[in-house]
């Protein structure tokens, strides 16, 4: 028997559900606002040839619903760059090779001696410009190859921001981490923009429309962090640091291990991760198709880097293995017995799904990952603390999941004026809705204010007046 709505608080406290909206405001606190671009006038001309570089970045940010686009300041020589750093604050330095007055690596060393914590990225024209980067300039934070695509600029900026925010955001909100292991600056420059586009696109597509616009934009801040490693040891360190939050690893096959280029370093790395987290989604990337069978042996997904379908295959990996697609229930013979695209559908179909697929997904933490992909931090965090073995039976586990989803859906609608949508209308949880984009009228505004006021003070009211319940009727304006 399903518990009454007011009893659900015993399974899932409203205080726990309330916290994440506040947490979203605190995520991505460290932003790249000021960028110093150091390049020759000719390189600057090349980068500006197709239009204003600043305009490109601003347009990219608007297209992805990202706020506060950074501002670019250009310096044409190393000396000019150092002078600017002395009196102006910068969050990131992007330098290109072949400066007129100074060796690029010498400039990076000078910058790091002045401001050790300032991220410095080399944006080279080709791999030939960086053949000795590891020996010549270990201070570089990363190296990319400029191909004239403004997507790369957005990706490298977001990559720096992810690295700066990963530690606090995982602690505050259990934000998930995706590790990319790739030593080639050429492939890194190609893959990273592709991955960011897929992550942002999928996160935006699964953030439920039942929230208002402000909450949807805030929840975008909880998208997975993408952390990049260039060798075996760096990847292992990232995994150890963020192990509870890692929800997927994308790895090249050949990269350095113990400072030696190792042909099967990626396979060794994924095998180690598999031992520690048996059900962690893994993706092996390689230009050698023969590595597919080795990936299959690890139960990892394989993608050929040279495949013309690379983008589609990456997107399919996110949809099927990282929780961005529908939640699909299968029997052991692969017969589909249920599919959910959102929380409402999942709650609706769970009572009729057989025990076998529920046990399968619970043991692999699929419910938590699917919810976290939708930035449902509160419920995902709660479910991740339970193992399937913690419940006396599958029926108890099923009841717990359904009840928790129902409590979340009810609570997050409280105190919010939601825009009505015929497709998304849910009479079970909808409390205060409006049709149209205009302002509320006087009477409706007063009702909405009372609804929000009662919701904000509900715990104090319940404490001071335990036998009194004050509510605003379900309202459509």
Summarize the structure in words.
The protein has helices at 14-26, 41-48, 53-63, 78-87, 104-114, 133-136, 150-173, 185-206, 213-219, 232-242, 265-276, 291-297, 310-321, 343-349, 355-363, 366-373, 377-384, 394-411, 442-456, 458-464; strands at 34-38, 71-75, 92-95, 120-124, 142-145, 177-181, 225-229, 246-252, 255-257, 260-262, 282-286, 301-304, 327-330, 336-340, 418-419, 432-434, 475-476. It has 477 residues and is α/β, with parallel strands linked by helices. The strands form five sheets. Strands 2-1-3-4-5 form a five-stranded parallel β-sheet, with helices on both faces. A five-stranded parallel β-sheet has the order 7-6-8-11-12, sandwiched between helices. A three-stranded parallel β-sheet has the order 15-16-17, with no helix packed on it. Strand 9 (255-257) and strand 10 form a beta hairpin.
In short, what is this structure?
With 477 residues, the chain is an alpha/beta fold.
The assigned structural class equals alpha/beta
Question: How much β-strand is present in the residues?
Answer: 5-15%
Query: Quick one: overall form?
Result: globular
Main sheet attributes: strand count, strand direction, barrel closure: 5 strands, parallel
Q: Using only CA atoms, what is the Rg? A: 25 Å
Uncertain regions spanning at least 5 consecutive residues? 1-11, 132-136
Q: Indicate the mean pLDDT.
A: 83
Trace the largest sheet across and list its strands: 2-1-3-4-5
Tally of alpha and pi helices: 20
The total count of strands amounts to 17
Q: In angstroms, what separates the terminal alpha carbons? A: 35 Å
Chain oligomer state? single chain
Helix content: 40-55%
């Amino acid at each position: 028997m399903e518990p009454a709505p007011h009893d659900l608080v015993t399974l899932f406290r409203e205080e726990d559900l309330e916290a994440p909206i506040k947490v979203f405001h605190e995520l991505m606190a460290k932003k790249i606002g000021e960028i110093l671009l150091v390049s020759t006038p000719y390189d600057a001309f090349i980068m500006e040839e197709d239009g204003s570089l600043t305009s490109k970045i601003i347009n990219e940010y608007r297209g992805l619903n990202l706020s506060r686009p950074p501002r670019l300041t250009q310096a044409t020589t190393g000396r000019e760059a150092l002078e600017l750093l002395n009196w102006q604050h910068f969050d990131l330095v992007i330098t290109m090779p072949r400066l007129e007055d100074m060796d690029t690596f010498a400039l990076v060393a000078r910058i790091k001696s002045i401001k050790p914590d300032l991220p410095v990225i080399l944006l080279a024209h080709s791999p030939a410009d960086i053949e000795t980067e590891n020996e010549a300039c270990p201070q570089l934070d990363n190296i990319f190859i400029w191909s004239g695509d403004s997507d790369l600029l957005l990706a490298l900026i977001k990559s720096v921001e992810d690295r700066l925010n990963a530690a606090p955001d995982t602690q505050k909100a259990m934000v998930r981490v995706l590790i990319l292991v790739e030593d080639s600056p050429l492939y890194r420059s190609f893959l990273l923009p592709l991955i960011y586009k897929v992550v942002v696109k999928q996160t935006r597509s699964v953030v439920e429309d039942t929230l208002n616009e402000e909450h949807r934009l805030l929840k975008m801040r909880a998208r997975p962090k993408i952390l990049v490693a260039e060798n075996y040891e760096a990847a292992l360190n990232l995994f150890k640091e963020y192990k509870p939050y890692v929800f997927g690893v994308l790895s090249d096959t050949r990269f350095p291990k113990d400072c030696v280029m190792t042909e099967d370093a990626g396979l060794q790395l994924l095998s180690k991760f598999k031992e520690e987290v048996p059900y962690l989604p893994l993706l092996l990337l390689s230009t050698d198709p023969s590595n597919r069978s080795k990936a299959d042996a690890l139960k990892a997904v394989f993608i050929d880097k040279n495949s013309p379908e690379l983008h589609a295959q990456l997107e399919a990996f996110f949809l099927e293995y990282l929780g961005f697609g529908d939640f699909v229930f299968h029997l052991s013979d692969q017969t589909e017995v249920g599919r959910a695209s959102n929380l409402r559908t999942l709650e609706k179909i769970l009572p009729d799904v057989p025990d076998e697929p529920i046990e399968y997904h619970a043991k692999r933490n699929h419910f938590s990952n699917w919810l976290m992909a939708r930035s449902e931090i509160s419920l995902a965090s709660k479910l991740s603390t339970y193992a399937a073995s913690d419940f006396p039976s599958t029926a108890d586990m099923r009841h717990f999941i359904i009840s928790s989803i129902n409590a979340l859906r009810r609570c997050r609608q409280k105190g919010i004026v939601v825009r009505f949508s015929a497709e998304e209308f849910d009479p079970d949880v909808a409390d205060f809705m409006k049709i149209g984009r205009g302002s509320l009228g006087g009477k409706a505004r007063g009702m909405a204010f009372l609804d929000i006021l009662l919701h904000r003070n509900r715990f104090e009211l319940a404490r001071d007046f335990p036998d009194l319940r004050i509510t605003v009727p379900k309202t459509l304006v």
